[in-house]
Design goal:
Two copies of one chain form a homodimer. Chain A is mainly beta. Chain A has one helix and twelve strands, in the order H-E-E-E-E-E-E-E-E-E-E-E-E. The first copy, chain A, has one domain: Ureidoglycolate hydrolase (Jelly Rolls), CATH 2.60.120.480. Helix content of chain A is about 5%, strand content about 50%. In chain A, a hairpin with a 4-residue loop joins strand 2 (about 20-25) and strand 3.
């Protein structure tokens, strides 16, 4: 997936296309600020978690999307495997016409913008771990929406 | 390294020893809130970066430590390789007597507490990438301290 194509939905967390700066007396390159962590709402705080997801089987029927009104949500793959991204353009009721699917490479993470409709985590190939940065604290931070009709994701490229 | 031994210095980010909760209709296990992200100071914001560090060669002479007065700082290895952690107990002037070294496994991340003295990133074996969560924004967020005398880290177990 390209950062440009994904830009309406969030940030791609990757070194490609970014110039690092040298730190720690030249022993380390810092690819800085690849994704913000956007936390809103009384008492909200950023936190780091690990998700361990079973792989989905293609073709996969997408029936439901979710969004987080109080935070961005970032995923980075820890087992080097690609994963499947399904997102939707509209903030209102989505239909198959407004949906896009991406295949993130094993060295690409994503951070969904706050309020961006997306499918829950879809690992590919084998059970996979992801580092996740999102929000803890009070407040309802997950809206769900059923699609007007399911769409099938049949393949990834 | 064990979470218990590292507790004075920060959190170990790992699934071991944590009970997940099932999410996403049973397809995913969430190991929740393994490490907080602690950001203070006017205009501070959490951000996600990637560090790519050259490996250190053992024995490694530890001469300088750093600490971040305005944030925690979290590292998670993205290439599955162990890395070396050097931390110090005291908030004042440290000496070799107050220092501890750990070997983090390839499936262990760490989050240093705000204000904990630590060595800069020490990869082992080969150039390695790490996902990093720390702070952007105004304010001086890195203090450095030279040790009274260097200490040699000769081996990791």
């Amino acid at each position: 997936m390209s950062a440009e194509a994904f830009a309406p939905f969030g940030h791609v967390i990757e070194t490609a296309g970014h110039l690092p700066r040298s730190i720690n007396e030249g022993t380390c390159e810092r690819f800085d600020d690849l994704a913000p962590v956007n936390i809103v709402g009384e008492g909200g705080r950023p936190l780091i978690s690990i998700f361990q997801a079973k792989p989905c089987v293609l073709p996969h029927a997408v029936r439901t999307l979710e969004r987080h009104p109080l935070s961005s949500q970032a995923f980075y793959p820890l087992d080097g495997r690609p994963f499947l991204i399904v997102v939707a353009y509209e903030s209102g009721r989505n239909s198959p016409r407004t949906i896009r699917a991406f295949r993130a490479a094993g060295d690409q993470g994503v951070s969904y913008h706050r309020n961006t409709w997306h499918h829950s985590l879809l690992a590919l190939g084998a059970t996979s771990r992801f580092l996740v940065v999102d929000r803890g604290g009070p407040g309802a931070n997950c809206d769900e929406q059923e699609l007007e009709e399911p769409i099938l994701v049949t393949t990834t490229v």
